[in-house]
Amino acid sequence: MSKPLWFKGKTVQNWKSDVARIKIVIKRSNILFFAIALAVFAVLTSLWENQTVSYAKKYATNNANVQVKSPLLEEQEELFGENVVSDRQAMILKKELLKQAQEDGNIDSGQFAQKIYEIVGDAPIREMVPFIAKRDEKVAAFLVGIAKKESSFGLASPSKDGKTCYNYWGYKSSGERGTAMGYACFGSAEEAIRVVGDRIEVLVNKQRNTPARMVDTWKCGTSCAGDPGAPSWTSTVALYFNQLVTKEG
After folding, report:
1. One digit per residue, pLDDT tens: the chain, 249 residues?
2. Is the dihedral of CA 217, 167, 182, 149 positive or negative?
3. In the chain, domain spans
4. SS (H, E, C) 188-227
């Protein structure tokens, strides 16, 4: 009697079911193996990254603690540091000297102004004294002396529309407010001193630097030869001019 075949009695359907179960088992085994391999790989990768980061941090920390400084750089910093200190000291000294010079100038200007106040008293020209005192000494002296002779320090001067023209020197041409009575009409005391003072300064620089030399130009235009009023003009202007100008020698 022959040995029965191991597949005897199984239908085709049974065979298909067995094959399907075997495939599932194999597939599950492969998935499990792959999952285990993936987990091992992940663990190894994590360990490697941690070691790399730790080494990098240690390297960076060591580098941060080590400071390399060039001797040449230190020398330059020291040199520039000295220059900065020196410049600051020079600036402070310059400011102090400038402040002192301004204070000295204000004292001198104040003393000069006080002398002018004493000369003009309460006459209209008094409000111009702060501006006059800032001019050159000879220019200021002419402003005072000529104003005395031409208008008695502003008591007899041109006006326009009931307001003074601030022209106390018989100055012709025109001012901010045009003209009045044939003379310049200024808009303010400051303008008057600026315009008339500048004109006197030009003449002083042309050697019209004394009343005797100024009279021909200021009173007569070119020459006062034969003018009977010239000597009086010169003497009056000189009286006040000499009180304000420092005598040489």
Report:
1. 444 444 444 455 564 565 566 556 555 555 656 566 666 666 666 665 555 544 444 544 454 444 545 554 454 444 444 444 466 676 676 556 545 544 454 445 689 999 999 999 999 999 999 999 999 999 999 999 999 999 999 999 999 999 999 999 999 999 999 999 999 999 999 999 999 999 999 999 999 999 999 999 999 998 999 899 999 999 999 999 999 998 765
2. negative
3. 16-48, 114-244
4. CHHHHHHHHHHHHHHHHHCCCCCHHHHHHHHHHCCCCCCC
| 138 close to 160: Cβ distance less than 8 angstroms | no
| Sheet strands (E) in 95-165 | 159-160, 163-164
Structural contact between residues 162 and 144, judged by C-beta atoms closer than 8 angstroms: no
Per the CB < 8 A criterion, the answer to whether 152 and 163 are in contact is no
Strand partners, 183: 180
Q: State the Cα–Cα distance between residues 192 and 197, nearest whole angstrom.
A: 8
The helix/strand/coil state of 79 is: helix
Q: What is the largest CA-CA distance in the chain?
A: 183
Q: pTM to 2 decimals?
A: 0.58
